Amino acid sequence: MAAVLGRLWDAAVTLLAAQSQSQRNTSSVERAVEVGGPTYANVRGVPCVLPLVTHEFANSYWHPAVEKFNAPPCDEDYSVVYLKWVASCDAGVQYDRIAAVWVNGVELLRTSTAEPSRDLRVNWEVVKDISLYGDIFRTGGTVVVALDNIVNTMYTSTFKVSLSLEFYRPLDLGKEVKRPDQIVPVSSSTKSYGWFSEKPSATKAGPPHRMVKLPGNTEELYLELFLSHHQCDEFYYSNPPDQFATAFAENFAKRSNFSREDIDEITSAKCGADGAFREVQVLVDDQVVGVVWPFPLVFTGGLSPYLWKPIVGIGAFDAPTYILNLTPFLGKFLGSKSHAVAFRVVYGEAFWLIDGNLLVFQDPEAVRPTRVEILQECLDRYVEPAMVTLPGAGNGNVTNLNSAFWTSVARDLFVKTSVTTSTGRKVYTLQQHFDFTNTQMYSSDGLDQWFESRTHVETKMSVTSLQPTFESDKTGKIQTVDVSQMQDYPLAGSVSYRLGKNGSFVLVTQFANSFTRSTTVEGNGIGFRFDYKPHDVHSALTASAVLDSRHGGGNGSTRATYASASPAEGCFSRVVTAECGRLIVDNSTTECLAYE
């Protein structure tokens, strides 16, 4: 339903939110913040700075900023690299906008913008460690920044962005990241937008793709996946079945003061609903080699702008990415021919913006191509969610707008592969279990919605190496390294919408979510070439807001926490709260505390 409601109230809510909080800020500038960890880690001295782009985005649809840059004026020992994004939006009226940064076709950042108030300019910045990609800058190239914006008599504000690279010497050489030997972008362009616009509901000939040819001595292969969901799928976690969404839109439009033209547009088939489950697939020559069940993003205009002033949602400024170990599928990428790499969103609606970077680790001593043999594979092409209409829908016939829906789906993936290089034979095992549940309840003829969703993923990877021996009476030494990862993305929220006289309305929203990723590494000897390190990170957020069009605005409160722990970096935790658009608490500590 949120996708349907979003089409109805987005403009009105944005205009009202631009009038600022009911309790006015004493400053003329608001600083938006995404609560995270320390800005810089493992750095020493003064940075070597390379400016990339300074640009004002006004009417910028189909007009990304494209700039050439020279090699950085830094020695190679400046191996820690940070991307710094500094942005502002003048006081006025403007939507949240999606944005991204590519260098030589390689995406480095997926982000979105803050929304201004009518009398408050908003500033924010993102600082991201991109040391993994440090080699792509060494000879210069092309940087592309996309931020599609519209400026007219209604939406008045532009976005000013300054982008730079900061190179540091590492404080501890032992903590330097292991860089791949090659980075191959799976993107649509190196000189313009890099993302693919995946529109599942409109796709007839399959998803867009990129032809890729990897070196024959590739030893290990990984993909860093960038994605964000928009338009019909911006709130996919609260999308009901199609038939309920259509009935709700018709009922809502008829009860409201909409014209016949508006009603026809709202109830048109431009946006389905298709339920709340989404799966992102990575394909090679139309064969599935990777699966992601994504973390739901909420942008700064999502549900109600008053939820996100000045604390924005988890991932709104630095969207999480996904590292997929494709080594067990390496044989599908090798050979004399190029291969088509594509991304598909199963059960999705238009549209998703997706691309990725292949991280290629090569065998430097190879005298012959890498030999790959899949020993065992269990990976279904699709999984089908089970959906139950709970009591209130009238014997399963969805005509009653006071309804409830429950969705559940699970998937298992297993693959075991032998890879032989100049160092001998290794056996890679990848095992994953995915779980998803979603519950939605509707009352007041669909105007009150409650939703709860949870995505949980368990991943186990192992590499077993048999070191060759040249003594005929001895066998090689077997060594195994195991990596276990856990991802957990719960969320819950409610939306209550009340129509008043003369087009007035009251919108009450509540939202809570969290993001947890945990990695453990066990074993000795030769491990993965990718730099898996033991690390735990947990972000959580709760927010509530009231918007009353009769009073021309609203207020909200937000509480966000962040905690991380690792043997190398120690512990860090932070608690930030905001009321009525102002930060009132911002405390951090390096003590090791339990998650809240």
TrEMBL record:
Pfam families: PNGase_A_C, PNGaseA. Residues 44-368 form the Peptide N-acetyl-beta-D-glucosaminyl asparaginase amidase A N-terminal domain. This is Peptide-N4-(N-acetyl-beta-glucosaminyl)asparagine amidase A. It comes from Phytophthora nicotianae.
